[in-house]
Structure formats: structure tokens, C-alpha cells
Specification:
With about 110 residues, the chain is an alpha+beta fold. The chain contains 4 helices and 9 strands; from the N terminus they run E-H-E-H-E-E-H-E-E-E-E-E-H. The chain has one domain (about 1-105): Protein of unknown function DUF952 (ADP-ribosylation fold).
Length: about 110
């Protein structure tokens, strides 16, 4: 199962240098890394990152890390990681371009979810 993290590109570049990701913004405040499932990522992008350029979408193999599913937005369960994310669990990283209306261009396989 794949899960997804939207992250500022500059912070992700630092993670690629160190070999792990400790989180960004709200993750550091909350004490865990927020992820979304494939069917949640578009709404997460819309609600929390609309109009924000220079972000990446990180696809992570949820089986490779110790994910905890917890209730959050609208009673949905979201994947959370109470640890560093090792880059060995990362499957793909995509730049998130913006459309003219400020929404992010997700990878094609997430548009059909």
C-alpha cells in the first residue's frame, strides 16, 4: 500500500542529503509525520497547500514503515508516522506543478482514484 506526503521541495532536498525525513511544518508541531492515502491526497492538497508552489509529492511504501492510522478530518482515518521517514521507504517523488486555478497537478495514477 502506498501513502503520500506533500512537502516543500527545499525541505525534501535536505532529506535527500541526510537520508531521512523528520517532517515539515505541522509534522514538527504535532510530533508525527502526516500522510494521506491515495484517495485522500487530492483533498489534502486542496485544503492545505492550494496555490503553494515548489512542493513535491512523496510516495511511500506504507508496509516498509510503522504507520498508525488515526481519525482526523471528517472522521476519516489518516496514516501517521511517529518516527523519522527513512528514504529507503520512498518509492517515487514528483514535483507538484500548479494549474492556473492554483490546484496541484497530481501524477496521473492518482487522478483516477
Amino acid at each position: 500500500m502506498m501513502i503520500y506526503k506533500i512537502c516543500p521541495a527545499q525541505i525534501w532536498q535536505q532529506a535527500e542529503t541526510t537520508g531521512f525525513f523528520d517532517g515539515a511544518g505541522i509534522d514538527l508541531v504535532d510530533g508525527y509525520i502526516h500522510f494521506s492515502s491515495a484517495d485522500q491526497v487530492a483533498e489534502t492538497a486542496r485544503l492545505h497547500f492550494a496555490g503553494q508552489a515548489d512542493h513535491v509529492l512523496v510516495e511511500v511504501d506504507a508496509v516498509a514503515i510503522n504507520i498508525v492510522w488515526e481519525e482526523s478530518r471528517g472522521g476519516q482515518s489518516f496514516p501517521h508516522l511517529y518516527d523519522r521517514l527513512p528514504l529507503s521507504a520512498v518509492v517515487s517523488v514528483w514535483p507538484l506543478g500548479l494549474t492556473t486555478d492554483g490546484t496541484h497537478q497530481l501524477p496521473p495514477h492518482l487522478l483516477t482514484v
